[in-house]
Amino acid sequence: MSRTLWAVSDLHVTFAQNQNTVDALMPQDPGDWLIVAGDVAEKIPDVVRTLSALVKRFDTVIWVPGNHELFNRKTDRVNGKARYRALVGQLRAIGVITPEDPYPIFGGVTICPLFTLYDYSFRPLGLTAKQALAQAKIKLDDELAIAPYVDIPAWCAERVTYTEDRLKATKGPKVLVNHWPLVIEPTHRLFQKDIALWCGTTATRDWAVRFNALMAIHGHLHIPAETRVDGVSHVEVSLGYPFEKHPPHMKRPWPFPVMQIN
Ligand SMILES: [Fe+2]
């Protein structure tokens, strides 16, 4: 029997319809692995509950945080970077692989869960980040639920340095997994262009080629499409919100089969 590495993201299980979809998510073989590329839910107990159900079904579950996992409410005692550390601790305790763990290997390919955030560098030429944010016609909830608790561009820069060092030290073919796309091109499909500000960093642009990636997996945009950049496929694997409708040509298999081994 062959084993498959599956990938999903943006499960947003607070929607009942999505919870039903996740309840029905089963491996084809007990040896199958599952990547969950962020935005499981906003509350830590919901994230842990969802992933603990999946870790019982799949041989290995790999998670990276999305912006929704990082959302803080005013009443939360743990917020900002501490919130991420709490998530990592609780998920490790139930056996989920996080961006802080050794990279696992599936069929000779190293699967690299990354967490690199964004720094407002996906913006129109000639504008500073401040100007681009001031001009944006729309703002993501991140500005209310994450930005007051941590300096996001500074955290992004730290994450880029940490991740780059780990990738440099990892030999052989890889699959890179990040909630936000590693390249700007997928954001060109956004209906509301200003949202790109919250979608990634230009600092990761050459990573797929430089670090020998067979494929890059991402979520975040809720536009499940494939983007080829410099010969590497960047595949968005989001489930998204139940009310979102995508043109039929963008429909991709879900969960997305990243690779299969015998
Ligand atoms: Fe999402």
According to CATH, the fold-level topology is Purple Acid Phosphatase, chain A, domain 2
Q: Helix- and strand-based class? A: alpha/beta
Shape: globular
Average per-residue pLDDT, rounded, comes to: 96
What is the N-to-C order of secondary-structure elements (H for helix, E for strand)? EHEHEHEEHHHEHEEEE
GO molecular function: hydrolase activity
InterPro entries: Calcineurin-like_PHP, Metallo-depent_PP-like, Pantetheine_PDE
Protein name: Calcineurin-like phosphoesterase domain-containing protein
Describe this structure in words.
42% of the residues are buried. The chain has 262 residues and is an alpha/beta fold. The mean pLDDT is 96. It is 26% helix and 18% strand. The chain has one domain: 4-Layer Sandwich (Purple Acid Phosphatase, chain A, domain 2). β6 (174-177), α7 and β7 form a beta-alpha-beta unit. It has helices at 16-23, 44-57, 81-93, 129-135, 142-145, 152-168, 207-210; strands at 3-8, 33-36, 60-63, 105-106, 109-113, 174-177, 213-218, 226-229, 232-236, 256-261. It has seven helices and ten strands. The protein has a six-stranded mixed beta sheet with strand order 4-5-6-7-9-8. Bound molecules: fe (ii) ion. Residues 10, 39, 66, 68, 220, 222 line the site of fe (ii) ion. Fe (ii) ion (FE2) is lined by residues 10, 39, 66, 68, 220, 222.
